Amino acid sequence: MDQASAYGFGFDGGTAIALGTFDGVHTGHIRVLSKAAEFNKQFNTMALTFSAPPKKAKMLCSLSKKEQLILKTGVKQVFTLDFDFVKDLSPEEFFKDILIESFNAKVLVCGYNYRFGRGASGDVKKLGELCKASNISLYVCQEHTEQNLSVSSTKIRDLLSVGDCQTVYALLGRYFEIGEAVSCGRHDGSAFGFATANIIPSPSLIIPKEGVYATYTRIGEDIYPSVTNLGTQPTFESDVSVCETHIIGFDGDLYGRYIEVGFLKRLRDIIKFDNKNLLFEQINSDKEISELIFAEKREKI
User: Fold this and answer.
1) Quick check: helix, strand or coil at residue 289?
2) Architecture of 176-300 per CATH?
3) For the residues of 121-183, what is the DSSP string, one character each?
4) Per-domain residue ranges of the chain
5) What are the angstrom distances between the C-alpha of 104 and each of 203, 269, 273?
6) pLDDT band at 223 (very low <50, low <70, confident <90, very high)
7) What is d(CA 211, CA 223) in angstroms, rounded to the nearest whole number?
8) How confident is the model at residue 294 (pLDDT cuts 50, 70, 90)?
9) Parallel, antiparallel, or unpaired for β 197-199 and 15-19?
10) CATH number for the domain running over 7-146
């Protein structure tokens, strides 16, 4: 039952633990994680999370990206539990076997709607009762709002499904990004002057609504303005969904390299043009608009 010991972790000094799935590490999550980080001088601080969101929802970022974002909040470690390992534990068993015996918890921090134990049967009230009985400090972060919206991963997914990049930015605290290694495409863009970097998003990750977007592309430490087609390519008679990005000001070979594409604003629907000259003109227009939007939002990236 001791997954922590199995992975070689030791917590003899006690831990301050931020509890949650932390999918996307949005502004609400950051409040929870930052509160746990306040105990860095007293305890080992950590985020105790799960490998996937509840109910098999599409993830807002990869596990590796999630860990990077969590560590930026100041907590010292991230421990990702295998959901199958704990799914059948009662709230009491999860508290005792995992939080106390495996991680030696002294301080717990969670959101107001945190659930735990078999069938999500444990809530914050139950957690408070267990903490009081074991003399463990519990801090509950209340509902967090941005732009009069309650911040949640579910709400962010809903906003991405309609292509609302700006409200996603407010709730997420950053622009939504897709990061993958560049794969070989059909070279349709290169044939008429607009080379593109093609990536295939993981099927476990959510993607925004199909369309053409003003984006930025991060290549290593460098960030470029870009324009991204997310969806099919009807002008080229292709019904295969792609994420292809024309990176403005970059001229080099990216095949196999990892890039991150950030979504600034949805520009338009994907449409079929009568000929490639009309498509060329439209992409030029998209490119100009994207450069202006990138310049306007550069400081927020």
Assistant:
1) helix
2) Beta Barrel (2.40)
3) -B-HHHHHHHHHHHT-EEEEEPP-EETTEE--HHHHHHHHHTT-HHHHHHHHSS--EEEEE-B
4) 7-146, 176-300
5) 36, 53, 62
6) very high
7) 22
8) very high
9) unpaired
10) 3.40.50.620
